[in-house]
Amino acid sequence: MLDFMAGKRAYLAIHDPPYNLVAFKEREISDFISWCKKWVENSITVSNLDNSLYVWLGADQRDGFQPLPDFMLMMREMPLRPRSFITMRNQRGYGTQQNWMAVRQELLFYVSGNAKFNVEAEYTDIPKILRGYYKEIGGKLTENLQRGKSENIRAGNVWVDIQQIFYRMEENVSGCYAQKPLKAIERIIKASSQPGDFVVDFFAHSGTTLLAAEINERRCFTVDIDPVFCEISIRRLEHFRKTRRLGWQNGHPFEAEVPLPELLETAEPLPQGEIPELQRSLF
Ligand SMILES: C[S@@+](CC[C@H](N)C(=O)[O-])C[C@H]1O[C@@H](n2cnc3c(N)ncnc32)[C@H](O)[C@@H]1O
Questions:
Q1: Which of 59, 194, 254, 259 could make a disulfide contact with 65, Cβ separation 3.0–4.6 Å?
Q2: 1 in a structural domain
Q3: How many domains does the chain divide into?
């Protein structure tokens, strides 16, 4: 395992595994959790004693909310302390008229030793608007807006300010079905590591962690079981280094081999807000 990291150790691990699949096959929940246990142990092996571990996971409301609670219980056996259970709110969701729309994405945060945490990374672009919560300081009654160090609110453990990836975003990587927003990964990297630190991600997919590490001057080791996603991640980083672009809006990572159809290249841009029927059905 340490060979994978060239002998270096990570201060931060960000993992986003497939939620209830092992090698793309649906398995019994116990098999899935045994597999998770192995890669969590591997992650600990390649990490410093003072490290942070973030894991994105799902909870299937049609099936006992698995695998989230099973994973949480398994984590109690690990030499890590639970720190936070973050929810990221998606704009699009799924559900019926008879149920609450499912818009959440779960993110678990664990630490060991004296893991770093930079609270500045937690501030959002959302201004504080609510007054209240009075407290006496030096004999004077102050309200929270006076006492706060920032004009903006902290993200806390419910992130409502992050745009879910869709095809018109600059950072979109065509062909990646589970891409996480750069803003979310950058928030984690800024909060739980310093420039120059090593970050590890065992499930690269579109290479979001790799790119976020590059932008924030961290060093990243990442891997994916599928060579296509390894290639996409490398190309995304190279594309960024060459063009400063974050993805391939109106394009794709394999344009050199498979050029865009002429029709698409010459198409007029769509008026704002107009989405063709086929693409709309994907949301
Ligand atoms: C949910 S995606 C990760 C998304 C990523 N965070 C991003 O922003 O693009 C999960 C990835 O894990 C990969 N994967 C599945 N099983 C794996 C395994 N056993 N080892 C490594 N990667 C695996 C899949 O090929 C897929 O690309």
A1: 59
A2: no
A3: 1
